[in-house]
Each structure stands twice: as structure tokens, then as C-alpha cells.
Amino acid sequence: MNESILITGANAGLGKEAARQLALKKETKKVILFCRNLVKAEAAKKELEAQTGKKIFEIVIGDVSDANSVRNAVAKIKEPIDAIILNAGGMVGKIAAHLTSSGMNQLVATNILGNVVLMEELIKRDKLRKTVLFISAEAVPGVKSLGMKPVAMGTSSADEFAGVLDGSYFGNKFDVTQAYGYVKYAGTMWTLAMARKYLDLKFVVMSPGNTKGTNAPDSLPAPMRFMLKYIMMPIVFPLLGDMVHNLEVGVKRFVDCVSEDRYKSGVFYACREGKLSGDVVDQSTFYTDLKNTSYQDNADEAIHRFIHQA
Predict the structure, then answer these.
(1) pLDDT score of 52 more than 60
(2) CB 131 within 8 A of CB 2
(3) For residue 304, is pLDDT > 90?
(4) Considering the entire predicted model, what is its pTM?
(5) CA-to-CA distance for 183 and 141, rounded, in angstroms?
(6) 230-286 pLDDT, tens per residue?
(7) Three-class secondary structure of residue 191 per DSSP
(8) Structural domains present in the chain
(9) Close Cβ partners of 270 (under 8 Å, ≥ 6 residues apart)
(10) Largest CA distance in the chain
């Protein structure tokens, strides 16, 4: 039972809906909206209060692409937190390949850097009690029916992961839609490594599936954005079956994951093989690289090469 939950990227889309659903659970006493923009955070807080009738939302401002911003934000958190949902991420649009001061590119910094630093700073300050949920995607195991290939690294060595994190792995042809799956793979493997390192906490990975009503398509290049928003999601996916669901359904996975014991530490849950909606299953049953503890540790090592200089 979680009385307090922190959600990164909580002012819109999946994060905001997670805050709403969690607030409606009777045991929830506090929901922390970890956001980059104060104006947007305050607007989200006001709307959430109106929707839920509860005054349990708090705002913490921090930029997940900036390690020091996250460290400064965590220093302002006074009381321990039961669960954190590492939701901040996405494809971040045209700036995805741009390098940040950490040496990671913007895509990686937004999806991984601050989320990792947040977890580590909370643990260092003894402010994390129970659960860490990292948000991943079916882009990791792939979806054959849509021509979405699984992530297939050569060795999953620390050096290879480091190449993904700074973008050099992709050479001169950086395609954010391809890179996104590899970035989520790195974050997923880091989370699974943490499940083995911190046995007193639950570390789980979950995909929301193919969810309507998020702002994810807005970060794509214009032709892809148009195709996804106006053709694939409203027309094509419903015809295929088990390929799309609404925001409430996608986010309920997050809420259930941090609330229910049936979701186990060290597991990546997402749709059944070849699906983008429906029941969730342990992805390692068909994407076996997830079981490789050396790969997990290599992802952790590579991420910390950049965090140490951030």
C-alpha cells in the first residue's frame, strides 16, 4: 500500500493520468508531480484537484535531462516516498541527437539520465521505501506484424551501450524512431540490474502499450506524426485488434504495477508477443536477452560513465 508516490513527467499525458488514478485510491495521501515547467505543473495540479476533489498534489520542479537539476530537486524533498514512477521520456523531437553536458544525447538524457539520478539520490538520502517503476515500450522486443524489429545489439557490452547513450552507435544516420527502442532497452536493463542490487525494493519495468491520448506523436517528424495520429491510431490499429487502447487503460498498468504484489521485481511487463494492447506478460519469456545479467550490468556501467561527468 502506497501513501506517497512521485511521478516524473507528471504535467501531461501518461504521467498526469497516473497522478489522477493514484489520487483516487483511498490509501494515497500524497502525489508529487515532478515536472520541468512550473506554469504547466501548476495548471496540471489545479486540473487534477478539480477532477479528483483532493488536495494531495505537490509540485517538485526538476529537469530530468539535467543531473544537477534533479539533485537539487531531490534535496527539497523532506519526507520518504513509497513509490516512484519514472515516466518522463518520449522521442523529444528534432533535438533528440543533440549532445547534453553529460555527454548523453537529448533523447537519452530525457529518458534515462534524470530518472536514474532521481532514484539514486532518493536511496542515498534514505527517502525511498518500496517501489521503482521504469516505463519502457514494446519497441524493445519489437512487433513483427508492424515491421517493428526487436532491439538487436552486437554484444550488449558496456562500450556498445555507451555508443547508444551518446548516439555514436547509430553512425551518421540517427533515426529517433529506431534509437528510441535502444534507449528504452538500456533503461530497462539498468532497472533489472537494480532489482538484483537493491533486494529490499521492488524494481519493475512496464510498457503502457499503444495508448491513445498521449502527446508522444507530437515529438515525431511531421510526416510520421500525421501518419500515426490520423491514420494508424484511429483507423488501422483498431482494425488489427489488440493494437491500441485508451489512456486510462494504458495508465492503469502503472497503477496496478506499483500497487499489486503480483507484479514482481526484476521483470519487464508489456503486451503479449506481437501485440500492442491487451494482457501484459513477462517479456523475457520470448525476448531472452532480458535475462542476461551481464547485459544488465553493462547497461548500468555505461549509464554511470555519463552520470559521473554530469
Answers:
(1) yes
(2) yes
(3) yes
(4) 0.91
(5) 13
(6) 344 454 455 455 678 999 999 999 999 999 999 999 999 999 998 999 999 999 999
(7) helix
(8) 4-307 (3.40.50.720)
(9) 136, 137, 138, 140, 141, 206, 207, 209, 280, 281, 283
(10) 51
What is the 3 state secondary structure string of 71-122? HHHHHCCCCCEEEEEECCCCCCHHHCCCECCCCCEHHHHHHHHHHHHHHHHH
pLDDT at 220 over 90: no
Q: Can you tell me whether residue 283 is helix, strand or coil?
A: helix
Angle between the N-to-C axes of helices 293-307 and 158-166, in degrees from 0 to 180, rounded to the nearest 10? 50
**Could you give phi then psi for residue 273, rounded to 5 degrees?**
-50, 125
Residue with cell 483498431: 238
Q: Which residues contact 246 (CB under 8 A, 6 or more apart)?
A: 211, 212, 213
- C-alpha–C-alpha distance, residues 110 and 107, integer Å: 5
C-beta separation of 108 from 165 below 8 A? yes
Indicate the residue type of 179: A
